[in-house]
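User: I'll paste a sequence; please echo it back and then give the predicted structure.

Assistant: Echoing your sequence first, then the prediction.
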Amino acid sequence: MKKMINLFLFLNLWLGGKTGRDGGLSFEDKEGKKVLFQNVVDSFFSLPDSLDPDSLNVGFIGNWPFGYHSYAVSCDPFRELLFFSSSGGIYILDVSDPYNPRKVSEKVHTRGRVQDIFYDPESQMLFAAIGKWGFEIWDVSDPPNPVKLSRYTGGILISGIYVVGNYAYVADRYYGLRIIDISDPLNLQEVGSYVVSDNVPWDVFVVYPYAFVANGFSSLLIIDVSNPRNPQLVSECYVSGFAYDVFVLGNYAYVANGAYAPNGIGGLGIVDISDIQNPVEVGFYQPGYHVFAVKVSWPYAYLANGLNGVRVIDVSDPYNPYEVGYLSEGEYISDIYVVKYYAFATSATYRDYPRSPHIIDVSDPSNPVCIAEYHIPPRTGKIFVSGAYIYAGSGAGLYIIDISNIKMPEEFNLYRIGSVHS
């Protein structure tokens, strides 16, 4: 009886417009066979145990996970590639001509909504923090055909990741700092951790032998990771606001803060770490609203400032930072990455036709200019399945998804006819 009830719910969701838990479309099937309506019933009753089912007799096979939440961006400056998240997927763009970014691949489909991205240019591996699903490692040495190597499934909610050498340092939002041995990417092993009992570790930046953790209302933690099996707290520094992100350059740590109670002040905190035992906040700039991310390309700090857009701050005098330029595109800027004269900013937006990332010319820091954008999928409405295609209505028009390879669905076309939700 339970199988019959679950089958009914499954078919009802399928025909009525099921969307995945992270904003894209999800598919369940028997051993990866193409899902067509005529074989759904047969496959439902004989799912193998190897599918690691999420619920009774149903296991995850594949998804088209792209959506309007774009929280993370990274770049390969040598191959001129941009990696940016779109809900549970990562697009790879060729930005050799920054005025005309070109999609190279949409084959990085993760299991959960992407919270953070770290790219290692030496190994050409991409690391994606995906919340409660852990983090994934992808080989992107062949950009059109990325290959998933493994997924770390430990942790509670992983929101930040940084890689140095053979170790990945991950911020587990409801636990602390975890250290994972990645020397064998196919066999990941957690070797050490530091428990944070009284706050929310959000992100991490590593300058060996120290890990700098953006830790919510406690702000900045500095942890000695020279012995990865036994990390030790060295010091901590209070910075006004809620610490989302941290970037370290030279003798200073730059902390992006949100304007949440009880502190209520969002902005950029600058911490002198020249005496690692006694870090001191020496400067603070308050642009208004939340600052979600910071990147520094000396002498400027670039801020992802939510609804206030991108802010460019002169930090040449860390005691007196000041704004030199800004760009507001009406989007909710959530992350930023800077290479030479260009900034790449992602946005988490609820628009019918969301734009992310924004490619910004910052050659004149006082006058940043958006020179190109890429449009990511908005929320989808109802869907219809016919043959090897799914048709999904959205605020941008009609998406056509090719599911001939059910483990790796791909966008086939987008027919822009205005908003389509049913």
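The first strand starts at residue 25 and ends at 27. DSSP finds two helices and 34 strands in the chain.
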